[in-house]
Design a protein that fits this description.
- By secondary structure, the protein is an all-alpha fold.
- The relative contact order is 0.08.
- α3 runs antiparallel to α4 (98-127).
- The protein has one domain (3-127).
- 85% of the residues lie in helices and 0% in strands.
- The chain crosses the membrane at residues 12-34, 46-67, 73-90, 102-121.
- Belongs to the PsiE family.
- It holds the Pfam family PsiE.
């Protein structure tokens, strides 16, 4: 593969990447609008609804971080997973077996440690 072909392929992939990121943002905003409409119809807000909004917010944040600093974007899926697991525990906590709640809490702890380590490594690599 020569240099011009490589440059053309990378340019094409960057265009596809930006189109898909735009679609992700549109879909996320659509999800937010649908959820807000559902909340308006139900005339009630609970903790699970708030956590769902945080999931949407984190997806938008992940796209924003992707454009500002690509190295930090890798931590955002971990934050999304933590929030999703917390939401799952809240939604199904009463009906779940206690050991499953414990397993999910341990998963949140492991993800939190991973996010901390990745953030520290990103800071160290920026300093160097």
């Amino acid at each position: 593969m020569d240099a011009s072909e490589k440059k053309w392929a990378l340019g094409l992939f960057q265009i596809i990447e930006r189109i898909l990121l735009f679609i992700v943002v549109l879909m996320t905003l659509g999800g937010v609008a649908f959820e807000l409409h559902s909340l308006y119809i139900a005339q009630s807000i609970n903790l699970a609804d708030i956590l769902l909004m945080f999931l949407y917010l984190e997806v938008i944040g992940m796209v924003a971080v992707f454009y500002s600093d690509r190295r930090s974007a890798s931590v955002f899926p971990i934050f999304i997973a933590i929030t999703a697991l917390a939401r799952l525990i809240i939604l199904q906590g009463k009906d779940m077996a206690p050991e499953n709640i414990l397993f999910e809490a341990i998963a949140i702890l492991i993800l939190s440690i991973a996010a901390f380590v990745m953030t520290r490594l990103n800071q160290l690599s920026k300093d160097n």
